[in-house]
Amino acid sequence: MRAQLKTMLELQDSMNTKVNENWREQNFAWYRAIWVECAELMDHFGWKWWKKQVPDVEQVRLELIDIWHFGLSILLTKFSTQALMIDELEQGLKSTSGIQAIADDEMFRELLETFAEETIASKSFSVSTFAKLLTAADMSVDQLYCGYVGKNVLNFFRQDHGYKDGSYKKLWSGREDNEHLVEAVAELDANSATFADDLYQALLERYQNA
Predict the structure, then answer these.
(1) φ, ψ dihedrals at 171, nearest 5°
(2) Which EC number applies (predicted)?
């Protein structure tokens, strides 16, 4: 797990730096991005009692991955060393005793609201409560890692190929880049130390051959 956490912290730092070289000094409201994502997650899970809703678990997991990006950004500004960040993450991710996968919809909603409340009150990121959400959504740390690295690498790829100036083509051979990402991830060894680089190269080959 520590190797995965190290990779994710480094990727997040690189992505933030690509967007703004001095991102640490900007005091961005990362916590605000988190609670807004919580609201989007709630919509995907469903909360309206006046209509039939079925939780979209895959979208819930994608929203958790987005929240993780912002949580890592907070920790990158909070701690002075990478080792301290990894300790905080590892300890928090292991604190899920008593939590089971989604069985009671209202329990999940209340857990999500607790996480959002903690985020707003502290303007920070509770790794332990986030870990409970992962467990409740039946999402392992390995799944979080694969999903996070995939999204991060795709974001880098988009930036490198004209996303900012509008020249990037999101459709490759008639399919969205997200679809190609899923296939590319499935073809690679996520445990490899070069997973992120291998994934970028796989996307590049698909993009150039589109």
Answers:
(1) -95, 125
(2) 3.6.1.23
Q: Please, which pLDDT band fits residue 199 given cuts at 50, 70 and 90?
A: very high
The first and second tokens of residue 9, run together, are: 């912290």
In one-letter notation, the amino acid at residue 153 is V
170 burial level (CB within 10 Å; 0-12, 13-18, 19+): exposed
Can you tell me the distance from the alpha carbon of 186 to that of 182, in angstroms, rounded to the nearest whole number? 6
Place of tokens 């992505």: 15
Instruction: Tell which phi-psi region holds residue 21, choosing left (phi > 0), alpha (psi between -120 and 50) or beta.
Output: alpha
Contact call for residues 31 and 78 (beta carbons, < 8 A): no
3-state DSSP call for residue 176? strand
What are the beta bridge partners of residue 172? 175
- Residue 21 burial by CB count (10 A; 0-12/13-18/19+): exposed, middle or buried? exposed
In angstroms, the CA 58 to CA 40 distance is 13
The single-letter code of the amino acid at 179 is E
108/56 Cα distance (integer angstroms)? 13
Alpha carbon of residue 128 to chain centroid: 15
Q: Are 42 and 112 in contact (CB under 8 A)?
A: yes
Q: Where residue 86 falls among pLDDT bands split at 50, 70, 90?
A: very high
* Helix ranges (DSSP H) in the chain: 2-19, 30-45, 57-78, 82-93, 105-122, 127-136, 141-160, 177-187, 195-208
